[in-house]
Amino acid sequence: MANENYRNLELESDIDKCESGSKIDLSFRQLIDRDMDIVVQQAIIEKQCRVLLLNDNCITAEGATTIAKALWKNTTLEELNLWNNQVSDLGVESLSRALMNNSFLRSLGLGQNRISYVGAQHLAEMLKSNSTIVRLWLFHNEIDDQGVKALTDVLANHNQSLEWLDLRLNKSVTDSSFDSLSHMLESNRSLNKFWMEYCNLSPPIKAKLRLIGQTKDNFDIGA
């Protein structure tokens, strides 16, 4: 094992103090990829946490892949938050592969992780078969119109279980996405919260999206 001699005594002690089956908050700790072996072993496997917060650390695709390996056998973790790391498309690919048939994780936070249309396509492929994830956070990434089309196509034609989708602050999304977005909004029956604020959409297109949203019952749209 490549990291068998690596220790982070403070991290190990903090996880050890957590209750089993609880929320474990490891945010803002400057955790690195090598720390993920500790997190997986102690937090996911031993403590069987239900919520794992890893936002605002230094986790790259390597660390995300370590977490993904644990998700293949996960039977307890329901919420994983990786906001503001450096997971990138490569890390998203590993996570998506693990979650294609995972039946436990319900919320996945990947905001601000340098994800492009490639990562969006991996997530879209995952959503074709995953019917458990209900919340997906992708704000402040580098997703463009091509990535939006991949996600909206799967939500229009395959996935009818996702309830929340956050695409705010993806500034490469333009008016060219309107047809894909409108088709998804008209076809999908599971989404009830959908956010597109601070993308590169013109005021008229935003207004059209809001009008479509207003035709849906109990639907919260941000555009």
Shape: elongated
Assign a percent range to the helix content.
40-55%
Mean of residue pLDDT?
96
CATH topology: Leucine-rich repeat, LRR (right-handed beta-alpha superhelix)
- Count of separate DSSP helical elements: 8
What order do the strands of the largest sheet run in, or round the barrel if closed? 1-2-3-4-5-6-7-8
Which sequence of SSEs, written as H and E, runs from N to C? HEHEHEHEHEHEHEHE
Tell me how many strands there are.
8
CATH homologous superfamily label: Ribonuclease Inhibitor
CATH first level: which class? Answer: Alpha Beta
How many structural domains?
1
Amino- and carboxy-terminal Cα gap = 47 Å
Low-confidence stretches: none
β-strand amount: 5-15%
> What is the CATH-assigned architecture?
Alpha-Beta Horseshoe
Judged by helices, strands and strand pairing, the structural class is alpha/beta
What characterizes the major β-sheet? Answer: 8 strands, parallel
Rg result = 18 Å
